[in-house]
Structure formats: C-alpha cells, structure tokens
Amino acid sequence: MNFIRSFFTSAARLSPEAKMANVKEVERIINNNNVVVFSKTWCPYCKATKAALNEIKANYEVVELDNRNDGDDLQDALLEISGQRSVPNIFFAKQHVGGNSDLQELKNNGTLKSRLEEAGAFA
Ligand SMILES: N[C@@H](CCC(=O)N[C@@H](CS)C(=O)NCC(=O)O)C(=O)O
Fold it and tell me: What's CA 55's distance to the chain center, in Å?
C-alpha cells in the first residue's frame, strides 16, 4: 500500500527543493496562526474536531487539504514536520497537538479551554 501510494505522493514526484518549499509553506501557516487544523472536508474526525472548537468558540485557522491542488504535498510535508499524516492534524501555538483523539482527550480531561487560552485562541 505504501509502495502504491509513493507513486502518487511527493515522496516519488517532487524534487528535494519542491518538498522543502512545501515544508516551508506548512511551517508558514503554523507560525502565522495561534491554532491550526489541517483537515479534509469529508473527514468525520475533522468534523468532530471543528465541532469541539466551534462549541468552545475558539478562533482557529482551517486548511482543507482536499480543497487545494497542493493538498497531498502539504500532507506529506505534515508527515515530515509532525510525524503524522492523518487528518485532522492540529497545532496550538506552533506545537503539534495530534489528531482528533488527542483533542477530544483534552476536552474530556478539562484542559482544552486553558490550552486554547494559552495558545491565544480567544484573542
Ligand atoms: N485517530 C485519528 C483518526 C484520523 C483518521 O483516520 N483520519 C483519516 C480521514 S477521516 C485519514 O487521515 N485518512 C488518510 C487520508 O485522508 O489521507 C484521529 O483521532 O485524528
């Protein structure tokens, strides 16, 4: 499966320079926003994450990877940066939080609001 995917992802298609440009683009988005969710519009885990953030009225940036031509390449860059390729891929204050299960864990243990406050999500 990984072998098949590699034909369609930047691991096989892109030059090292192009891959670096994608890493820089993802880092630019992470660095310019207090809270970022890399998402796909159809993804149920992404919907659950966005619902939890909306419920708490957090401000956050959503990047819907399936709405972008470079979405697959940015997803590969996310793997490089965070060690995670699945979506949602969530960052608070430039720190990798993880996926929806990690966000729901913060919600369930009562620390989501304070973590979001620290990240500047209510500014
Ligand atoms: N345990 C993960 C599950 C995330 C997951 O399975 N996401 C799917 C989409 S719903 C995914 O990334 N699939 C691979 C892909 O879309 O490239 C979480 O809690 O975030």
Answer: 19
ipTM: 0.98
Residue 105: domain span:
2-6+14-119
Average pLDDT, the chain: 94
What are the pLDDT digits (tens) for 17-26?
A: 999 999 999 9
Residue 54 belongs to a domain with what CATH number?
Answer: 3.40.30.10
Structural domain count of the chain = 1
Element spanning 57, H or E: none
Cα–ligand 1 centroid distance for 88 (angstroms): 6
Which atom of ligand 1 lies closest to the CA of 89?
20
Q: Is there an atom of ligand 1 within 6 Å of 71 CB? A: no
Say whether pTM exceeds 0.90. yes
Strands (E), 25-88: 35-39, 61-64
